[in-house]
Design goal:
This protein is an alpha+beta fold. It has two domains: 1-210, no CATH class; 215-340, endopeptidase domain like (from Nostoc punctiforme) (endopeptidase fold (from Nostoc punctiforme)). The chain has seven helices and 20 strands. α5 (215-225) packs across α6. It starts with a helix and ends with a strand. It binds 2-acetamido-2-deoxy-beta-D-glucopyranose (4 copies). One 2-acetamido-2-deoxy-beta-D-glucopyranose is lined by residues 295, 297-298. This is Polysugar degrading enzyme. It comes from Neohortaea acidophila. Residues 212-344 form the NlpC/P60 domain. InterPro entries: NLP_P60_dom, Papain-like_cys_pep_sf, Peptidase_C40, SH3_YKFC_2nd.
């Protein structure tokens, strides 16, 4: 039965484009790697981590311990000292731009930014990146399981799902190599396979097979993030920054928007999978993204965004020390406008 399922999957994979939809440009000149920890933090340079950041640098990483142990001052210091850039999730394809002293300078795909057309740039410990081409072959040919039903879930060593292997974030995608009624068997970038509960993830043949969301679908997903810590550069189900929240939720629903607030707001920026259209205050709908800027005439000064949740409320990752929250939309002097990325 198991063999028959694999055969079905192989037939399914063969009937699809060999490369599932990728909206960003491909590079042929850079080595490819795959993130091999639940969440890798992209640092501005290898000298930016402090002693308190040790749990974020290892393999396995320990994001919960890291976030738990940091003081408010230490959270704020990540922002003021420009230490962190973004994050990338287990299995994410990254281009290796440079290598130095046990670190890789990478571009993380799936995170459009004017900073680099290949993906979001930053430094990660080389130990957090797998070069396993076998995993890459499965990633480019097999359906994937998308973690979409909680901010983080466990994956297991056994099909009975009693032996926890590690936790993985919302929006993680892993190649599917088998399935029972309760468990999805996925390939993992550290080699071998693991099991996910069918209630924690959905299986799709390609990015375009992800059902097109309604605005309320996005708001429902954002509700699950309420209470998570704010992290400068956070782009995962463990912690987010403002645009990390909106980007991650759209991405898990198959829609690629800019990684940073200024890129999301800039309708002239063409690196997105989809362009936003501007929305008047009176027309705001759930799922729209609201932007704040220091100079309303200059979109490059957009510094914050949030997801409109309906009824005059928004869900936002506001700043260090303030957990993700739902709050009344602030129509203040710095209200820049809103964009809609959903059509129809
Ligand atoms: C930020 O943290 C570093 C390392 O702990 C420390 O040396 C520096 O003084 C801090 N800066 C501020 C502005 O808090
Ligand atoms: C999502 O998780 C909840 C709680 O664990 C479960 O009741 C529900 O069936 C899951 N949804 C899907 C679509 O699997
Ligand atoms: C886009 O470009 C046009 C023409 O250069 C400019 O007027 C407009 O302000 C730009 N919009 C944004 C959001 O940058
Ligand atoms: C705001 O941005 C506009 C357009 O770039 C610029 O002309 C103006 O000088 C800026 N205002 C301030 C106070 O910086």
């Amino acid at each position: 039965m198991y063999t028959r399922f694999i055969t079905t999957l192989l037939a399914l994979a063969a009937s699809l484009d060999a490369h599932p939809t990728r909206l960003q440009p491909r590079s042929t000149s850079h080595q490819i790697g795959y993130i091999s920890v639940d969440v890798a933090t992209l640092w501005t340079n290898p000298h930016k981590p402090r002693p308190v950041d040790a749990p974020a640098l290892t393999n396995p990483a320990n994001p919960e311990e890291w976030l738990h142990d940091m003081t408010l001052k230490q959270f704020l210091n990540l922002t003021t000292q420009d230490r962190t850039q973004s994050q990338a999730l287990y299995g994410d394809l990254v281009y290796i731009l440079d290598a130095k002293d046990g670190w890789y300078h990478i571009a993380a795909t799936g995170q459009p930014t004017p900073k680099n057309k290949l993906g979001y740039p930053g430094w990660v410990p080389a130990a957090q990146v797998s070069l396993d081409t076998g995993f890459g072959a499965l990633q480019s040919s097999m359906p994937f399981a998308l973690v979409d039903n909680a901010t983080s879930v466990n994956i297991y060593r056994d099909a009975d799902m009693s032996d926890v292997f590690m936790s993985v974030s919302y929006d993680t995608r892993l190649p599917v190599i088998g399935q029972t009624s309760d468990a999805i068997q996925v390939a993992v970038p550290s080699g071998g396979s693991a099991y996910l509960s069918t209630s924690d993830a959905s299986v799709y043949s390609s990015e375009t097979a992800i059902p097109y969301p309604k605005g309320q679908t996005l708001v429902d997903a954002a509700q699950r993030f309420i209470g998570l810590p704010y992290l400068w550069g956070g782009t995962s189900g463990y912690s987010v920054d403002c645009a990390g929240l909106t980007h991650t939720i759209y991405h898990a629903n198959g829609i690629l928007i800019g990684r940073d607030a200024s890129a999301q707001a800039d309708s002239n920026y063409t690196g997105h999978g989809v362009q936003g259209t501007s929305v008047a205050r009176a027309d705001l709908q759930p799922g729209d993204i609201i932007f704040y800027a220091t100079n309303l005439s200059d979109p490059q000064t957009v510094y914050h965004d949030a997801m409109y949740a309906g009824n005059g409320q928004m869900i936002e990752a506001y700043g260090a020390g303030i957990p993700v929250r739902i709050t009344a939309v602030r129509f203040n002097d710095d209200y820049w406008g809103a964009e809609r990325f959903l059509t129809g």
